[in-house]
Amino acid sequence: MEYKVCKSEELPNNSMKAILIQGNMILVCRSNDRLFALDNSCPHRGASLSKSDMKGTKIICYMHDFEYDLVSGKLLHIPGKWQNQNPNWTKSGDLLLFPVSEKDGEIYIELS
Ligand code: FES
Predict the structure, then answer these.
(1) What distance in angstroms lies between residue 103's CA and the mean position of ligand 1's atoms?
(2) What is residue 52's predicted lDDT score, i.e. its pLDDT?
(3) CATH code assigned at 34
(4) Residues with beta carbon inside 6 Å of ligand 1?
(5) Predicted TM-score (pTM) of this structure
(6) Per-residue confidence of the chain (112 residues) as pLDDT tens digits?
(7) Which of 2, 52, 68, 88 has the fewest Cβ atoms within 10 angstroms?
């Protein structure tokens, strides 16, 4: 089902916005003039990704600096400072991505 997120002008390039939709906290981002929508919880330990930094099509979680690809959702990089941590602690899933679109000056996401 499609849900309206915000007006296009409320999400300029290189910005993000967290919005509660149907009980899910969704993070919508515009970076490199592309739109992305994802669950706001970091797949590592659940930190709020809305506090994180975007670098092009990557997002770097503010909590432990794990780096994820906004296009594929995949974990790209774990900082060397966590090298000696228990592998169970460094284990992470992928970002939970949602289809996002822009029509007539509004941004929409698709939630099943
Ligand atoms: S909670 Fe996001 S990197 Fe650990």
Answers:
(1) 33
(2) 95
(3) 2.102.10.10
(4) 42, 44-45, 47, 61, 63-64, 66
(5) 0.94
(6) 999 999 999 999 999 999 999 999 999 999 999 999 999 999 999 999 999 999 999 999 999 999 999 999 999 999 999 989 999 999 999 999 999 999 999 999 999 8
(7) 88
Out of 41, 59, 64, 75, give the residue to mutate to test ligand 1, the one with the largest number of ligand atoms within 8 Å of its CB: 64
Q: E strands, the chain, where?
A: 2-7, 15-21, 24-31, 34-39, 53-55, 58-60, 67-69, 75-77, 97-98, 100-103, 106-110
Which residue range(s) make up the domain with 86? 2-110
- Split into its structural domains, the chain has a count of 1
